[in-house]
């Protein structure tokens, strides 16, 4: 196969690979058929050796094309000039070789830039018409004037159309590659964003879990040990009770830490009985451990189905956080936990008779239980489940914190 393919501006792609093979095969078939026709019709003439030699030279030149590369370099253009010149001499000696012009049109179109290729095609067409008219012995034949330009026009139009189609295919392929690249980059960016959001969400979850369990347990232990230290000399039995209570809190914190590491439910829920039993146990434990205020627990209604683990864990953590803040800040004598099942939602109310405060007012030292740093964690837990958190309070009138969580699945 000749090296006239794969040059700049030439059509490419799977659909056009057959055209070079067809054109190169057609060239050698037409060259061989023209030589055979001449030898059959003009045997033993003086020009016969020249015809045979020039035909062989043209075939050899055509075959040597691939060795010159595919770009329109000076050597390549010299090769094309040699092929065209040899063919012109053959046409002058034997007009039947003019049929080789069609593959040569294709060769010129593949080798040269578009304008130069069109000029070459026009020159070859004029030469074919002139040679056949002058060398014809049967007088003027309109076909000799009309047919070559028509064939040249058809060949050029087909090639240009294929060239444009191939260019569109290349542009489409480039756009597809660019689109695929953009999609891959977008997917990587989305994956990175999701990883970052997941990391932030996990950090927030960990901070809330630590605050509602380990940090509050450690705070209670500190208060109990300080109380034991104050009464140790005057009332050793009371001091020992404080130490034993701190020890039980430490044991419970250890269980929470182990479950926390394994990402399990709160220890109170894991012990059985569900949220109702866990809240009653929390109220009894706070009343016994604090010694400063009494915590009552009331359950109103029953769930139509078992509460989801996320809902139960969130409400228990909110109750723990709210009571811890009441213990540390509210100076209350009583507190109440009320869990109400309303069919489509569950509501937890935590009320105390402490100092109260003005909701939304800034204060360097929060006067009531809900003003501690656990409140943002409570809001985050409720929002994550599609619920709401409200606070009602006034100075000297205590505080009521209400968390409502829907029981319907989130969309």
Question: What would you note in describing this structure?
Answer:
Helix 1 runs antiparallel to helix 4 and helix 10 packs antiparallel against helix 11. Strands 1-2-3-5-4 form a 5-stranded mixed beta sheet, covered by helices on one side. The N terminus is likely disordered. 64% of the residues lie in helices and 9% in strands. The protein contains 11 helices and 5 strands; from the N terminus they run H-H-H-H-H-H-H-H-H-E-H-E-E-H-E-E. By secondary structure, it is α+β, with helices and mostly antiparallel strands. Among the domains are: 127 residues, no CATH class; 137 residues, Heat Shock Protein 90 (2-Layer Sandwich). A hairpin with a 5-residue loop joins strand 4 and strand 5.
What key phrases describe this protein's structure?
411 residues; alpha+beta; Heat Shock Protein 90; rod-shaped; disordered N terminus
Structural class: alpha+beta
Order of helices and strands: HHHHHHHHHEHEEHEE
Residue windows where pLDDT falls under 50 for at least 5 positions: 1-15, 362-372
The overall strand count is 5
Mean pLDDT: 78
Share of helix, binned: 55-70%
Say what the CATH topology of the domain at 275-411 is. Heat Shock Protein 90
Largest sheet, in brief, is: 5 strands, mixed
Number of helices: 11
In short:
The protein is α+β, with helices and mostly antiparallel strands and 411 residues long. Among the domains are: 14-140, no CATH class; 275-411, Heat Shock Protein 90.
Write the layout of secondary structure elements.
Elements lengths: L17 H24 L6 H16 L10 H20 L7 H11 L2 H22 L6 H90 L4 H26 L5 H4 L3 H17 L3 E7 L8 H22 L3 E8 L3 E8 L22 H10 L3 E6 L5 E8 L5
Parallel strand pairs: 1-2
Antiparallel strand pairs: 2-3, 3-5, 4-5
Helix pairs in contact: 1-2, 1-4, 2-3, 3-4, 4-5, 4-6, 5-6, 6-7, 6-10, 9-10, 10-11
């Amino acid at each position: 196969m000749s090296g006239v393919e794969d040059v700049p501006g030439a059509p490419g792609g799977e659909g056009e690979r057959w055209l070079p093979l067809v054109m190169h095969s057609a060239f050698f078939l037409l060259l061989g058929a023209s030589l055979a026709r001449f030898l059959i019709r003009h045997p033993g003439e003086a020009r016969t050796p020249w015809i045979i030699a020039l035909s062989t030279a043209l075939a050899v030149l055509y075959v040597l094309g691939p060795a010159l590369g595919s770009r329109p370099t000076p050597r390549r253009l010299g090769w094309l000039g040699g092929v065209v010149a040899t063919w012109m001499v053959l046409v002058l000696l034997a007009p039947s070789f003019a049929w080789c012009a069609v593959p040569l049109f294709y060769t010129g179109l593949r080798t040269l830039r578009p304008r130069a290729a069109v000029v070459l095609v026009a020159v070859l067409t004029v030469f074919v018409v002139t040679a056949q008219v002058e060398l014809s012995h049967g007088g003027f034949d309109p076909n000799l004037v009309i047919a070559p330009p028509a064939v040249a026009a058809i060949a050029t139009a087909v090639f240009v159309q294929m060239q444009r189609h191939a260019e569109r295919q290349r542009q489409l392929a480039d756009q597809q590659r660019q689109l695929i690249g953009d999609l891959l980059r977008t997917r990587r960016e989305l994956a990175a964003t999701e990883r970052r959001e997941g990391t932030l969400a996990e950090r927030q979850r960990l901070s809330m879990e630590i605050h509602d369990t380990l940090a509050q347990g450690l705070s209670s232990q500190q208060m109990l040990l300080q109380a034991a230290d104050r009464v140790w000399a005057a009332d050793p039995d009371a001091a020992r009770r404080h130490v034993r209570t701190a020890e039980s809190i430490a044991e419970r914190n250890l269980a929470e830490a182990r479950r926390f590491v394994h990402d399990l439910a709160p220890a109170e829920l894991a012990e059985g009985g569900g949220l109702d039993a866990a809240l009653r146990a929390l109220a009894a434990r706070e009343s016994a451990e604090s010694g400063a205020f009494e915590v009552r627990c009331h359950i109103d209604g029953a769930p139509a189905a078992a509460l989801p683990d996320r809902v139960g864990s969130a409400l228990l953590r909110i109750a723990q956080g709210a009571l811890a803040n009441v213990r540390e800040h509210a100076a209350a004598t009583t507190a109440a936990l009320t869990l109400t099942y309303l069919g489509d939602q569950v509501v937890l109310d935590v009320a105390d008779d402490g100092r109260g405060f003005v909701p939304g007012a800034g204060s360097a030292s929060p006067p009531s239980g809900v003003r501690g740093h656990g409140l943002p964690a409570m809001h985050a837990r409720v929002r994550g489940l599609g619920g709401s958190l409200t606070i009602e309070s006034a100075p000297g009138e205590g505080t009521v914190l209400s968390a409502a969580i829907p029981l319907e699945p989130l969309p």
